[in-house]
Write a structure and sequence with these properties.
The chain is mainly α. Helix content is 53%, strand content 3%. The protein contains 22 helices and six strands. The strands form three sheets. Strands 1-2 form a two-stranded antiparallel sheet. A hairpin with a 5-residue loop joins β1 (379-380) and β2 (386-387). The longest helix has 33 residues, at 22-54. It comes from Hymenobacter negativus.
Amino acid sequence: MIKISDWNSQVVAQKGTRQTTAYDMRLRVLLNNELIARLLSVVLLGVSVLVAFLTKNTYDSGDSILHFLFARAVPQHPENLLDPWAKPVFTLLAALPSQGGFLGMKLFQCVVVAVSARLAYVTARQLRLPWPALAILFCYAAPDYFRVQFSGLTEPTFGLVLIAAVALAVTNRPVWSAVVLSFLPFVRSEGSMFLGIWTVYLVWNRSWRALPFLFVGYAVYSFVGGLVLGDFTWVFTKNPYGLHSQYGHGLWGRFVESMPTLLGWPLLIFAVLGGLRMLWHATKLREWLQPLFRAELLLIYGSIVAFIVMQSAFWAFGLFGSFGMTRVLVVITPLCVVAALSGLAWLSQLGRSARVRGLIATAGVVAVVVLLFSRDYTYQAESGTNVGWRSTLHWRRDFQESPDMILADQGAAWLKNHDAGYKWHPISFSHLYFAVPMDVDIFNLDAKPPLTKDYAPYLDGVPVGTYIYWDGWFCPVESHLPLELLQKDSRFKQLWKGSIPMDLSNLAGPTAI
């Protein structure tokens, strides 16, 4: 039996000729966690890569496709690297992988998620949470985070930059944390909010030297934009989002009600427990003197709460182009899994012995994994939201090609068989996935004439001989182009029509083209 007389003592009782130090014991635990973390990282990354090769789903068929097209077209249109909507940092990072097609984009996202999960482990380990390697497993067990790996969306990269800044902060590298975070607004616009959180944190810790580095990202891109675009203020003057959203507004509770979809029920419960644990520790004044407590409070829990409140406010008041898309919550997943690990550790303290505490933790992990592949447990909220929808993973629902993409492929196949010289004709469409099977450069207005101008149909600008693909969602919603307008216009003739019944339990987009 080995007994450590004191945690800080180097002298340990021995049996026989064996002698161990407290430092040695801690090192062994660290090595065990590191080995498990590496094993989990390799295995789960391998699972993601396998799914990337098998799945035909792109998470959504709007922004996911458009970000991919922006990145893929960088060699032909280098100006895309400074497009404020596409987000410069994301476009820069994704430009090379996207040359391998959408599969290249998916593999890039798999790496982004793997690195993010690793950084969540580093953060949990530095915060001295038990079983920190579970942070990696929890990242992959968050259903919406797993699904978004196979998209072209900016959310995973935003989450990576955010958790990287947190990991650097808790490992006592505030300057590098500030530098990394300074580029967050150039991955997604919401990144500007986190500059305020980091400012409070750095001031609280008296890290005065790190404060100016929060503006490195703005300085770099303002300078580059000034040289290329001739406008050193382009970061502010070319904001693609107006004050008022064209999509209207909705209910305050929309994003909170979507948390089960993001994390699944077990992880959500553990994350809430983690938040309650933090509030409990916040009642103890001595905790506020600890730098790691302040980092955990502000950078993890503060970021989670602030982001949810901000998105809820934008949607409730109809601000800054908000469409109420709850997928944006994906960016806080690495932070939420650290909170969930903290909550599981707190829950395990109900056990009076190490064995019982281990059993509680094991039961929690089993619940996370098993329920991930079970049915959705839902309830109808007063708002009408089906809370808990898609809080699990199902192959047919989540990873098969969506109906609108199937129709796009069918339409492209028809056109190629109907007109061997179709590449010589302009092709107009609002459903951006058409650009993928037809290999259309959407940034060449001669190849793809616009169907709308100033939020109104613009059919007079469509050249003679243009093929137009009309779909049941993007054309009426984004291009404000109803089908009747085309049908009543004698300049256009319907050549092909297709439709697929939609599974209403899995709204994936339009069902008629």
